[in-house]
Amino acid sequence: MNKLSFDQIFMNLAGDLARRSHCVKAQVGAVLTKDTRIISVGYNGPPAGTHNCDEEWPESGCPRDARGSCSLALHAEENTILYAVKNGAKLDGATMYTTLSPCLPCARLIYSAGITKVYYQHSYALYKGLPSDEGVDFLNRFGVEAVRFTPDAENATF
What we know:
single chain; alpha/beta; Cytidine Deaminase, domain 2; five-stranded mixed sheet; 6 helices; globular
């Protein structure tokens, strides 16, 4: 019997969480773990109790900021870290699994929170048409291991 690795389980969960997003443009999920235990989960979207983009702007999504990003929502990484901190979790040495590599502002937050490893499934740079994954570059430069996730060959579910 083949068992899924914890890395595969956590990345699968991040993918499932992404499908909870109300974003019209992109659905991103994230899982924060420590010692094979889940600390926090999240997905991109507006702060709780404010609005749902797919309901208010089903055709176009919410208004864009100057960089073309959502002006009203939190990224999956932000939501995941904020929920963990709100509930008193210790993040030093934690690992994050996310379906899209972190943007530069999220990378700075990840670094500042003490997270030491990030697995990502897809490239933010390719999604946004940028020349490089600035967030991944930042994390690796400052000692946070950020690597593209390679699924278990025999057990991949995506």
